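Contributing: when you submit paired examples, paste them exactly as shown. First protein:
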Amino acid sequence: MSYPYSKPFHRRENTRLPSLVASFRMAVLRLSITVTWNQDAWAG
């Protein structure tokens, strides 16, 4: 597998952004799960 030289550097510079997006998505997912679980608890 031969990559262009610009790709590894580009990937190394952008390592923070995907992890930030992933943590944000996990937070949103947990929030939505908690909200729906609370709604089910309140309804039932």
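Second protein:
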Amino acid sequence: MGLLEIEGLGSVHYHEYGSGEKLLFAFPGYGMSGSQFSVLQKSLMQQYKMIAFDHFFQETSKLYTVKEASVLAGMQPDFLKLYLQKWLDQNPELRFSLLGYSIGANMALYLTQHFANQIDELILMAPDGLVVHKGLQFLRASFIGKK
């Protein structure tokens, strides 16, 4: 466990799991903490060292200068990039993977746009907010798709 100090925002609590060679940053669902990923220790974590962040208002993450209402209305994208910047400042050529569960998948997708050259894998678990293709939706809801 550790605390990541993000200037202008606060301190973000994170959990560390796994013993693998690859680095994996993980973002939980709304109202959950990074501890939800501990169940992956016997499977995924043999390949990865995971840094699993808590959302603000979870565990010991604390806001310093930003108001609570501002974060509840939606995390500012520039603050989200700072989650990874600490590790990248120490090793600019660092390669890593991202995992996002539910609303955390949106965070992982946003970060993919900004760090695509350094990302090896993107894992989305029950992603929230992604639009289902209309053809797939039709097949799942119609008698044709159920045959």
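If you have annotations for the second protein, write them as plain sentences, like these:
The chain has one domain: 2-141.
The first strand starts at residue 2 and ends at 6.
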